[in-house]
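Sanity check

After download, print the first record. It should look like this:
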Amino acid sequence: MAKLDHLAIVVRDWRAARDWYARHLGLRVEFEIPERRTAALQDDAGFTLFVAESDDVVPAPSCVLTFQVADVEATYEQLTRAGVRFACAPSKRFWGFGAELRDPDGYSIYLWDERSMREKGGS
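Expected structure tokens:
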């Protein structure tokens, strides 16, 4: 079976996207290619998210990024205090229990944790 290794998303400003994902979701900068206006950000499991700026019109966000966190409610509180606006506070969603927000380019981000999903996310 294949293993998904990385994902690239098109953004309006690669540096702003890099900083947002590092500051708010704790991704670390793996490397940058300034001449290509691209940064590679890695999560704790080794998955890499590329944020790439384009001269073309940025397409409408076409994917949902789902991040597992240690505690979705604590993460929600921390990010809310940092000024991050959420589309939905932690609650039962169609996909389980978690929170929903948008990054600066409009990509949907779902946050969840194992305990809350198990205890609150069932049908």
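If your output differs, re-run the checksum step. Summary of this record's structure: The two ends are 30 Å apart (CA to CA).
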